[in-house]
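Lab notes, practical 5.
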Amino acid sequence: MKIATWNVNSIKARLPRVLEWLGECSPDIVLLQELKCVEEVFPYMEIGEAGYNVAMSGQRTYNGVAILAKQPIDVERKALPGGDNDEQARYIEARIGNIRVASIYLPNGNPTRDENRGDHQKFLYKLAWMDRLFAHVQDLLRFEDAIVFGGDYNIVPTDDDVYDAKALADDALCRPESRKKFRAIMHLGLTDAYRTYNTEPHRYSYWDYKAGAWQKDNGVLIDHLLLTPQAADRLVASGIDKTPRGREKASDHTPVWCELTD
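Output from the prediction step:
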């Protein structure tokens, strides 16, 4: 079973690239983020013709997450618990066969500072969202299911996961507060699928469109597949597929994938 996560940065703009990649790689499950559309305009027909069922939580212009799967999708929830007034479409969770998956688009959190050099509301929202994710992961772990929490976490876990740690030290992706909350989620007992098989530093999943970042390999690793122990026991391979990022009209992210035994 091959599972991938990919922030497509607009499903409408990136649909040719997505269909191309689905045809080439044929993953069993794909977790998409930053769809930038509502359910009514999602390209269900095109994705269906590629052989995939779809479950999605959409939002006009911003955010939006989806799960694509070759098997039937049993949606468990379309929002992260604990945010009754949160209207941002950033989380969807479903059961597919013998595994549960979640597609996560964690808030970016920038700018981190307000005009008084205090913590900006966007950064505080990110930290609060991470607290909610921690609580939900902790709750789900009680059921001892095989679960993959995949997505754009907007977190650079260590300085080895960014091209210039000093330049991004005060960025929400790298701030100590962000990293601490990410580590707390990991320490609940999750396994980073990519890092299990790939320990070399400076391997990235995102490159900005500006300043020749892709050509210079000035990237960050912010897309992660985190596995519960029951899923980690089935992990046999993982990697980053850089091919889509080098193509015309590409997303600024590229897919991160893992393979689990059935």
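Observations recorded by the TA: Residues 121-141 form the longest helix (21 residues). The domain at 2-260 is CATH 3.60.10.10 (Deoxyribonuclease I; Chain A).
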